[in-house]
Amino acid sequence: MFYYSHLADVGIEELTLAWNRCWQGYAYEVRYSAAQMQAWLEKCRIDLSHSTALRDSQRILGFALLALEDQMGWIAGTCIDPEFRGRQLFRPLLEDQLARAESLQLKGIQLEVLSHNHAAKSYEGIGFQKKRDLYVYRYHDGIPLACTNPGRGCSLRQANLSDYFQARHEAGFHPPWQRQEGYLRRYAALRAWLNAEGTAGILMPQESHVVLDAWTMAWEQAEKLISSVLSLSQGEFVLTNQPKDWLTAYLSRQGVNPSDIQYEMLYPMHPIQSANIE
């Protein structure tokens, strides 16, 4: 017999085992050690007392993890054990998660789902609304890109995080969940750059080619900013959750297509006009 419960009483070892087992076979199969799992839960601000577990008498068969920030929720992961997929358990799991979140008086709940994931239809069927596409890029040497000369990069100055996020806010950039200021600040070590005008910026972790954040206010800055990204990342980069903007337009014109597209979705709860994610 299946039943639902919260996850507050689940130890980190059991939760890690459930995570690694239930994510098997998905497009992005992420495995964690217990220490990595704990760090990820803290960075995402997962509220285990309002997250949902699908169980039988022996173990966790699936779960939905709910993160909380500024009166908004974010589904950080929903999955079912491979042995129990195809039994129409996904939608009831989501419904239980939304019911648990109802008491929190959230403005809404967000999530991202790959465009080719059949779960997107399940999310829509339960009331999630598609807000926009988010692009995932994995650029490496060999992909044609005209702006490979670092000398063409825009003049960037290293900036403190407060100046960086203030400039981004003034530029009108509306970040998805994993690029919100609070989320990004929870990375252990960050490097931020702004151009002289404060109209373009890049945020990266120390010693990594992952670009956590990149934005510009104008088309004419896009090539220079991508050149700077290539220089800082030593010729290759990963950029995820990028909304359609001047950077995506420039990369498209250069023949660099996203490796994946995600749908950013919103489940409206209490007053939806306050849930501004666009």
Briefly, what is this?
The protein is of the alpha+beta class and 278 residues long.
The N- to C-terminal Cα distance equals: 42 Å
Radius of gyration: 20 Å
Global geometry: elongated
| Helicity, as a percent range | 25-40%
- The assigned CATH architecture of the largest domain is 3-Layer(aba) Sandwich
Q: Number of helical runs?
A: 8
Describe this structure as you would to a colleague.
- This protein is an alpha+beta fold and about 280 residues long.
- The protein has 2 domains: about 5-105, 3-Layer(aba) Sandwich (Aminopeptidase), CATH 3.40.630; about 135-260, 3-Layer(aba) Sandwich (Aminopeptidase), CATH 3.40.630.
- It contains 8 helices and 13 strands.
- The strands form 2 sheets. Strands 1-2-3-4-5-13-6-12-10 form a 9-stranded mixed β-sheet.
- Strand 4, helix 3 and strand 5 (about 110-115) form a beta-alpha-beta unit.
- The longest helix has 14 residues, at about 220-230.
- The radius of gyration is 20 Å and the shape is elongated.
- This is N-acetyltransferase domain-containing protein.
- GO terms for molecular function: acyltransferase activity, transferring groups other than amino-acyl groups.
- It comes from bioreactor metagenome.
